[in-house]
Amino acid sequence: LIFYTLNLGSRVFCIIFRSTEIQLFLPCLVKSIVLAVHSFISLNRRPPDCGRRFNISGCRLLTDRAAYAEAQAVLFHHRDLVKGLPDWPPPPGQRWVWMNFESPSHSPGLRSLAGNLFNWTLSYRADSDVFVPYGYLYPRTHPSDQPRGPAPPLARKRGLVAWVVSNWDERQARVRYYHQLSQHVAVDVFGRSGPGRPLPDVGLLHTVARYKFYLAFENSQHLDYITEKLWRNALLAGTVPVVLGPDRANYERFVPRGAFIHVDDFPSASSLAAYLLFLDRNPAVYRRYFNWRRSYAVHITSFWDEPWCRVCQAVQTAGDRPKSIRNLARWFER
């Protein structure tokens, strides 16, 4: 018996010969190879076990560029592309994947990327080829799913409004809105810039959990740009998010409408402040914002392991149909 392998796009077939006749021609059980060539993944870091962590089997994840020719997909981070575009051609059937988790406002060089350079997009956008949001809700199936309990104990909430911010820019809509809101209700700001004070030693989640409301304000407003400020800092921490980002309809694609407060629901910051003070005085109404916890738990995306594994999963299910992104900037900036 003689064994050969034949690589046809994303599929590999095993050919078994007996003498000069083909005896079997069938798909091989081989692992999908995904090569990451961006600086966000250390060359010395052990790749994740996709099967154990995300229930995605059949993956071989590499950072060694010597394996470039055998990789079925190559993962590029946008920040690295700003330094220079790759100058090596892809072998037939290989997919180049553009990955970015920043908003268009914080993604320089988008319009300098050549058309048809990439085959897939990977981002927080729901219309990406590989959709990896910052977080999501999933049906609760076990009592240990986070966050636990139908509602957090109100006795532990000694503060009203908290905000953790790492990048303070007076030109941003979120900073301008904070200035208006803080004239009518006290906001405790934590962070290394602006009026922020250092987080207590107990850390972000435990600190925010002591407050009734959290300002989940995004640094810019774009389609589907809903970050860990909502998923981790607010929903997982056990507080009610007050969001500033895309419009309410966009949030409601991912979160029940009664799980958050949107600044657009109010004609002014002063009317929002009045509503927060009303909820502070009416615990029964306030608790309704946690009704979602009876049915859902929060998943927080693990960067950069999870995107890497999701690309492998996409390779396994994509088939051989070719695709290229004609105008990446036009798609991402809309």
From TrEMBL:
Reactions catalysed: a beta-D-galactosyl-(1->4)-N-acetyl-beta-D-glucosaminyl derivative + GDP-beta-L-fucose = a beta-D-galactosyl-(1->4)-[alpha-L-fucosyl-(1->3)]-N-acetyl-beta-D-glucosaminyl derivative + GDP + H(+); an alpha-Neu5Ac-(2->3)-beta-D-Gal-(1->4)-beta-D-GlcNAc6S derivative + GDP-beta-L-fucose = an alpha-Neu5Ac-(2->3)-beta-D-Gal-(1->4)-[alpha-L-Fuc-(1->3)]-beta-D-GlcNAc6S derivative + GDP + H(+); an N-acetyl-alpha-neuraminyl-(2->3)-beta-D-galactosyl-(1->4)-N-acetyl-beta-D-glucosaminyl derivative + GDP-beta-L-fucose = an alpha-Neu5Ac-(2->3)-beta-D-Gal-(1->4)-[alpha-L-Fuc-(1->3)]-beta-D-GlcNAc derivative + GDP + H(+); an alpha-Neu5Ac-(2->3)-beta-D-Gal-(1->4)-beta-D-GlcNAc-(1->3)-beta-D-Gal-(1->4)-beta-D-GlcNAc derivative + GDP-beta-L-fucose = an alpha-Neu5Ac-(2->3)-beta-D-Gal-(1->4)-beta-D-GlcNAc-(1->3)-beta-D-Gal-(1->4)-[alpha-L-Fuc-(1->3)]-beta-D-GlcNAc derivative + GDP + H(+)
Assigned EC number: 2.4.1.-
UniProt domain Fucosyltransferase N-terminal: residue ranges: 34-135
Pathway: Protein modification; protein glycosylation
Keywords of this entry: Glycoprotein, Glycosyltransferase, Golgi apparatus, Inflammatory response, Membrane, Signal-anchor, Transferase, Transmembrane, Transmembrane helix
Compartment list: Golgi apparatus, Golgi stack membrane
Keyword DNA damage: no
Entry GO CC: Golgi cisterna membrane; trans-Golgi network
Gene3D superfamilies: Glycosyl transferase family 10, C-terminal domain (3.40.50.11660)
GO molecular-function terms, A-Z: 4-galactosyl-N-acetylglucosaminide 3-alpha-L-fucosyltransferase activity
Record-linked Pfam families: Glyco_tran_10_N (PF17039), Glyco_transf_10 (PF00852)
One BP annotation, GO: regulation of leukocyte cell-cell adhesion
Membrane topology: Single-pass type II membrane protein
Residue ranges occupied by any Fucosyltransferase C-terminal domain in the UniProt entry: 155-331
Main localization of the protein described in the UniProt heading: Golgi
Record SUPFAM superfamilies: UDP-Glycosyltransferase/glycogen phosphorylase (SSF53756)
Family: Belongs to the glycosyltransferase 10 family.
Function: Catalyzes alpha(1->3) linkage of fucosyl moiety transferred from GDP-beta-L-fucose to N-acetyl glucosamine (GlcNAc) within type 2 lactosamine (LacNAc, Gal-beta(1->4)GlcNAc) glycan attached to N- or O-linked glycoproteins. Robustly fucosylates nonsialylated distal LacNAc unit of the polylactosamine chain to form Lewis X antigen (CD15), a glycan determinant known to mediate important cellular functions in development and immunity.
Protein name as catalogued: Fucosyltransferase
Native source species: Ursus americanus (American black bear)
